[in-house]
Amino acid sequence: MWFKRRNILTVVLLIIFIYFSMKLTEFDLTKFKDFRNMIDFMSQWFPINFSNLSGIIRDTLQTLAMAFLGSLLGLIIALPISFIAARNTSPSPIIYHFWRVFLSFIRSVPEIVFGLILLTALGLGPFPAVIAIMLHNIGVLGKLISELIEAADPGPQEAMKTVGAKGWIVSLFSILPQIWPNVLSHYFYRFEVAIRTSLILGFIGGGGIGQRLFNDFKTFQYPSVSLDVLIIMILVIIVDLFGGYVRNRVI
């Protein structure tokens, strides 16, 4: 069954793509012959320096606030947009295509580009980072939620329409309850991504633990870098566990 012409062609194309990707990225495992250098470098990270723990916790909370606020504002704005960007709830095909293109456009711009643009107008600090995260999340969450709306069971919608319910009431009471657990799942995933994005935005002056990590690297404070990384890992794990708890409660 597997030896069909189409499957063989797929495997051949896959091998060709892998080959050219390895050539273009200079993928070469023999470069790990200098693995010893990395071990020597990592050894400088220990013992971990806990003297700056209070400052790191403050920066971590700032990073958490940036990620939370940017993701939540993105969700609040993306939710109504996703209903007019979904094929089955959009008022007209023109409006549907317009918002789909808008979401694709805003999603194609990375947060760091938004951050660099906003820094020129808003200056350094976490505020432009929050706006950058929000803008990108509008594009991503808008697309994901609109696809959930299109995949929602049409039965409850038709039942409400037959009793004369208006469009927005149908969306609110027949579609939203169906997709809400998945909306929360997408939100918490984007929240995790936003934490990592906040770190990158910190490298360009967005504040938070990302900026501290960048400064520690730049000043060769490797024992502090190890504490930064440890705190970031703990933060992501806590957010993941909290997201799972909320999803289970909702489902």
TrEMBL record:
<dbReference type="InterPro" id="IPR005769">
    <property type="entry name" value="PhnE/PtxC"/>
</dbReference>
<feature type="transmembrane region" description="Helical">
    <location>
        <begin position="195"/>
        <end position="214"/>
    </location>
</feature>
<keyword id="KW-0812">Transmembrane</keyword>
<dbReference type="InterPro" id="IPR000515">
    <property type="entry name" value="MetI-like"/>
</dbReference>
<protein>
    <submittedName>
        <fullName>Phosphonate ABC transporter, permease protein PhnE</fullName>
    </submittedName>
</protein>
<feature type="domain" description="ABC transmembrane type-1">
    <location>
        <begin position="60"/>
        <end position="243"/>
    </location>
</feature>
<keyword id="KW-0813">Transport</keyword>
<feature type="transmembrane region" description="Helical">
    <location>
        <begin position="226"/>
        <end position="246"/>
    </location>
</feature>
<keyword id="KW-0472">Membrane</keyword>
<feature type="transmembrane region" description="Helical">
    <location>
        <begin position="7"/>
        <end position="25"/>
    </location>
</feature>
<keyword id="KW-1133">Transmembrane helix</keyword>
<feature type="transmembrane region" description="Helical">
    <location>
        <begin position="167"/>
        <end position="189"/>
    </location>
</feature>
<comment type="similarity">
    <text>Belongs to the binding-protein-dependent transport system permease family.</text>
</comment>
<dbReference type="Pfam" id="PF00528">
    <property type="entry name" value="BPD_transp_1"/>
</dbReference>
<dbReference type="InterPro" id="IPR035906">
    <property type="entry name" value="MetI-like_sf"/>
</dbReference>
<keyword id="KW-1003">Cell membrane</keyword>
<feature type="transmembrane region" description="Helical">
    <location>
        <begin position="64"/>
        <end position="86"/>
    </location>
</feature>
